[in-house]
Amino acid sequence: MSTDSAAVTTSRALSRTNASAVRRRRIATTLTYSFLIALAIVFLFPFVIAIATSFKTEPNATADPLGLVPSPFTTQAYHDLFHNNDFFLWVKNSVIVTVCVTLLRVFLDSLAGYALARLRFRGRGAAFATIVAVMAVPGVVLLIPKFLVIRQFGMYDTYYGLIVPLLVDAAGVFIMKNFFESIPVSVEESARIDGAGSFRIFWSVVLPMARPALITIFILSFQGSWNELAHFIVAAQSTSLNTLTKGVAQLASGQLGSGNRYPLKLGASVLMTIPVAVLFFIFQRRIMNSSAGAVKE
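Request: output the structure for the sequence above.
Response:
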């Protein structure tokens, strides 16, 4: 009986211990999710305010700037934007610049990353060290040198001046180099035996395997060029070359009209965020996925 009593006591003690551990895990999980929800609310609240304000009248937006319910509800801000020729000019310029920069940057970043990862040439280490050093330099420091180079090459106030300086990104080259180095060299050997050159191997063998990194660079390039402002300010002054970011900045500074115009400004900002948000939600599951399983041993 004493043995059975000891076993029962031990079982009860283990049950209490397990129950206590379960309660602690539940409390920890609850606190974690509560913190994440609070953090999400902090980040999302300004965007929700922007959406709500874009449907307000200007007096309502001025009197109740943080209200979440427009009173009265109106789409006048979007009506004014869609009937403004300048807005469609900004959209056109942003689309031209963003598409050109995104496609060419993905190609050039991947090409440079492959060269640094696979090719052996004099100065390879110095080139990579320079790229890492450029990543550490704040972009605002390079604005004046960038302006001088653009003027020297005769690209100021042209599409070339808006596009060409953004075609290569140090962070993109760094990401692609590291990803290419994670791909085994053995996958290229058969193509090299068949007589394929370096570019053929890069284009037909290695690049298709780097799809996760390419998607990451694509999203970062699209977002960066779509939201770019400082470079566009120093690269052009003609109103015919204004992009969405530059146009919305002029709206926010009051250069294009009188009054606070909160609904109009925030309506333009909301429309401006839609392409980047859609692109991110489409590709979010594929950002920098592991390349494991690409090669079977």
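The mean pLDDT is 83.
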